[in-house]
TrEMBL record:
<dbReference type="Pfam" id="PF08534">
    <property type="entry name" value="Redoxin"/>
</dbReference>
<feature type="domain" description="Redoxin">
    <location>
        <begin position="37"/>
        <end position="159"/>
    </location>
</feature>
<protein>
    <submittedName>
        <fullName>TlpA disulfide reductase family protein</fullName>
    </submittedName>
</protein>
<dbReference type="InterPro" id="IPR013740">
    <property type="entry name" value="Redoxin"/>
</dbReference>
<feature type="signal peptide">
    <location>
        <begin position="1"/>
        <end position="17"/>
    </location>
</feature>
<keyword id="KW-0732">Signal</keyword>
<dbReference type="InterPro" id="IPR050553">
    <property type="entry name" value="Thioredoxin_ResA/DsbE_sf"/>
</dbReference>
<dbReference type="InterPro" id="IPR036249">
    <property type="entry name" value="Thioredoxin-like_sf"/>
</dbReference>
Length: 165
């Protein structure tokens, strides 16, 4: 019995690594990141949830957030991001990519969390799978030339502190 509570807690904390729609049993993922510091970001434009084309700005740093609306870690990170000075930084472009999300789920999420940054639906993981195999939120920081500065897995409560650069 004394081992049951820690095991239950561990299973709860690892919840954002799995996919609620397709996965019936949980196995701890081997987190892999497919892009590394110094590499060029392979995407230069996205179609946002409004259907508009959004280019990566040439004169700004970028924060690319790979997230899921249902994930408590993703929700916490977005709340922290919205409360941080990053949200008002004119030198920073923020793009959030909803893993396995459709446009309506992003609209609902954006309204609920009062976001003011670009959101992109990725219903089939076509974007997400270029950068990682498991885990949300994922944060990719890019410099003004769209090179990777760092990548983070945002499951820790204080991930926003690592992003303030």
């Amino acid at each position: 019995m004394k081992y049951l509570l820690p095991l239950m807690l561990l299973g709860t904390l690892a919840g954002c690594a799995q996919t609620p729609k397709n996965q019936t049993t949980y196995q701890k993922p081997n987190y892999e990141t497919y892009i590394t510091q110094g590499e060029s970001f392979p995407i230069s434009q996205f179609n946002d949830m409004k259907g508009e084309t959004v280019e990566l700005a040439e004169d700004k740093r970028k924060l690319v957030l790979l997230f899921a609306t249902w994930c408590s870690d993703s929700q916490r990170f977005v709340k922290q991001l919205m409360a941080s000075p990053l949200i008002a930084d004119p030198d920073l472009q923020i793009i959030a990519i909803g893993r396995e999300e459709d446009t309506q789920s992003l609209v609902n999420f954006s309204e609920k969390f009062a976001t003011n940054f670009t959101m992109v639906a990725d219903p089939e993981r076509k974007i997400y799978s270029q950068f990682a195999n498991a885990g949300v939120p994922r944060i990719i920081l890019l410099d003004k030339k769209n090179r990777v500065v760092s990548t983070l897995i945002g499951e820790a409560p204080n991930t926003i502190e690592k992003v303030l650069w």
